[in-house]
Design goal:
The longest helix has 26 residues. The N terminus is likely disordered. It contains 13 helices and eleven strands. It is α/β, with parallel strands linked by helices and 313 residues long. Strands 1, 2, 3, 4, 5, 6, 7, 8, 9, 10 and 11 form an eleven-stranded mixed sheet that branches.
Length: 313
């Protein structure tokens, strides 16, 4: 078969990632929106490298996904990560609907959960680590994150801390059920709510440990359901205490954004800035620690999945 890079000329897989995939070694995809839109330079670059290091230290190859000058990169080198980090908010935030225009116009783009899933699947990487998924927004049941529909149509396992509690979590889980998405609790029957380990809402199933999670993922891929899977990892207790401060600040920031009539793509930058102010920078520190914890779980899942000898998507 043709290598991916010649079959799909818009997508370049780094030599490191390509070698790992060919040799059936563990690989984990990472998104790039956290780099461009999550925090300022140079902290964003430092964080991206630290999350990659969590994977590398465990023998897993990281595949950070981003778009530079209309070319999708699966696995980015230091120079490419720095370019994305320096561009920051000048990079377009790319979801499924934005991919074609960013590639056609040769623009720079940072991939959301949705777009990262698409390119991970095209590169035959079935495991992707992020902080949390989007969901259905409170007060407007029509405001649904594209993450949820992507999970219904793209067979990638998203390792995350669930969804943020500022979202309408019951509707989010109902939407995922309608989309046929397996929502699996990692050592829990209770869907995690980002900084809150328990939302009080049930997951559709539970696994206890990475070996069991790998077997579930292998089965999901083998029967070709063509839908994704959420592996909800509860935040560790030592981060949950700090997380409560962040949750309270988040609720206040959301209320302020509504009072000020802030809408659309202006909401997230406003919330990030305001939450960081209200917590004295604690929100960013806790968020980074949470993502690193998810990366530890994702690494163990990838190692066990590779042992099963199934990388077929």
């Amino acid at each position: 078969p043709l290598p991916v890079r010649s079959a799909m000329n818009w997508l370049t897989i780094s030599p490191e990632v390509e070698d790992a995939l060919r040799e059936h070694r563990p690989v984990v995809a990472l998104e790039s929106t956290i780099i461009s839109h999550g925090m300022p330079y140079p902290q964003n670059l430092k964080t991206a490298l630290e999350v990659e290091a969590v994977l590398r230290d465990r023998g897993v190859v990281p595949a950070t996904i981003g778009i530079l000058k209309g070319q999708v990169h699966v696995g980015m080198n230091g120079e490419q990560l720095e370019a994305l980090a320096q561009r920051g908010l000048a990079c377009k935030k790319v979801s499924r609907r934005d991919i074609a225009q960013v590639l056609a116009k040769k623009q720079d783009g940072a991939t959301t959960v949705s777009a990262t899933m698409i390119f991970a699947h095209q590169a035959k990487i079935p495991i992707f680590v992020t902080g949390g998924i989007g969901g259905v927004h409170r007060g407007d049941a029509w405001d649904v994150s594209a993450d949820l529909t992507e999970l219904g149509r793209t067979p990638v396992c998203v390792v995350c801390a669930g969804a943020k509690s500022i979202l309408d979590l019951p509707r989010t889980l109902e939407f995922l059920e309608t989309q046929g998405v397996c929502v699996c609790g990692y050592g829990t029957d209770d869907f995690p709510a980002f900084f809150t380990p328990r939302s009080g809402l049930p997951t559709s199933c539970r696994v206890d440990g990475p070996a069991e999670a790998a077997e579930l993922l292998q089965q999901q891929l083998q029967i070709q359901l063509n839908s994704g899977m959420v592996l909800g990892v509860p935040v560790p207790e030592h981060l949950a205490a700090e997380g409560q401060l962040v949750e309270d600040a988040t609720r206040q920031a959301v209320d302020e954004s509504m009072q000020q009539g802030i809408k659309g793509n202006e909401v997230t930058p406003f919330l990030l800035k305001r939450i960081n102010e209200l917590t004295g920078g604690e929100s960013l520190r806790t968020n980074i620690a949470l993502i690193k914890h998810n990366a530890e779980v994702g690494a163990q899942l990838a190692i066990h999945f590779a042992k099963l000898g199934s990388s077929k998507l």
